[in-house]
Amino acid sequence: MPKISSDTLWELAAAEVRETEGGEEDGGETVSERTVFLLGSKAGGKTSILLRCIDRDEPSKPTLALEYTFGRRARGHNTPKDIAHLWELGGGTFLSDLVQIPITPVSITSLSVILVLDLSKPNALWRTMEKLLQAATAQLEKVSSQAQQAQKAKPGAKHQMPVHSATRVLPKDYPDRELISPFPVPLLIIGSKYDIFQEFDSDKKKVICKTLRFLAHYYAASLIFTSIKSESLMSKTKSFFSHLAFGLDRGKTLSCDSTKPLVIPAGLDSFSQIGSPPTTDVDITSLHAKNPKDLWKKVYEHVFPQENTSEQRELKDPAKDPQYSEPQIDAMRAQKDQELEQYKRNAAKSWKGLELET
Asked: In terms of CB atoms within 10 Å, which of 20, 70, 114, 219 comes out highest?
């Protein structure tokens, strides 16, 4: 009888793939496995970008909650294909608790995060970024701590997985190394819907560009603006994606001009190049900021007051979504709903009768 394991079904399946395709024992090359987790603005284009990056020619559908797919790439002729486990979080910030599923003690050893922010909706941008990165950071710190405790409990365990620290170590010559707070794992920030953003007022574009440059540098992240309507921008975006998913060269393109799409690989920007927050009608000293990031937040929200969107109310009921229709099940559901309503009416009459009798 097989031994019952505490591993999840997915971890067991991944282990079997490694055994069958890894091939170390028979002289073959090992298969590289990486995990990429996409999250970001609701309806911000995450699925469309992902499908283009993995060369899948299929229409994108709204992400219901948390969806999984994968990508494979061969390093050469007759060589094992590297695997990228791809997770996408839907619902904007509403379902941020689901970060615990793709971020595990096993996945963090090869995990990267892609944050997609909708440039066409600047009034929701900062809060979306803040809540999602906070949720991801908290989970990363939690699983890192769990992995460290597990390793201490079994110091001599065979085939022990390397423990991933919740603090990323940057090269000593990284710009502003002592002033930034690196995201625990490699992070790519994608500004989507550039085709709409480029029609914005130049002053507003400058505020958004400088703010995102600051945030990307503060988190030691790469930053790129893109649009699924531009083959050139999608090609550059795919290079950044392939760097995270398969370890390929991300390219050497650099563009910091706010009148053009930003393309800034991590480590190629600095606070001196970014400059101070763009303010014209507010005294920075009157904002009472706790730190530089808080100052940028206050300036940004002064220009773009953040919306209090109730994403929970906006989330559609998947049972009523046409794309998930099942005629037989839906007919039975409708019948049961009618029976339930009739039961409620009968129950209400019974209670009214009891009240009258008393």
From this structure: 114
Determine how β-strand 33-40 pairs with β-strand 111-118.
parallel
Task: Name the H helices within the chain.
Answer: 9-22, 46-53, 125-153, 194-197, 202-218, 231-246, 271-274, 292-303, 311-314, 327-357
DSSP class of residue 284? G
Judge residue 347's burial from the number of C-beta atoms within 10 Å of its C-beta, 0-12 exposed, 13-18 middle, 19 or more buried: exposed
> Tens of pLDDT along 213-225?
999 999 999 999 9
Q: CA 25 to CA 106: how far, in whole Å?
A: 23
Highest mean pLDDT among 73-82, 88-97, 261-270, 311-320: 261-270
Q: Hey, what are 75's tokens?
A: 């390093």
Side by side, the strands of the sheet bearing 263-264 are 66-74, 81-89, 33-40, 111-118, 187-192, 222-225, 263-264
* CA–CA gap between residue 105 and residue 269 (Å, rounded): 31
Alpha-carbon gap, residue 283 to 218, rounded angstroms: 23
Q: How far apart are CA 340 and CA 342, in angstroms?
A: 5
Contact (CB, 8 A) for 318 and 62: no
Q: Half-sphere exposure of 110 toward its Cβ, with a 13 Å CA cutoff? A: 16
101, 87 Cβ separation under 8 angstroms: yes
Six token digits for residue 281: 């009608």
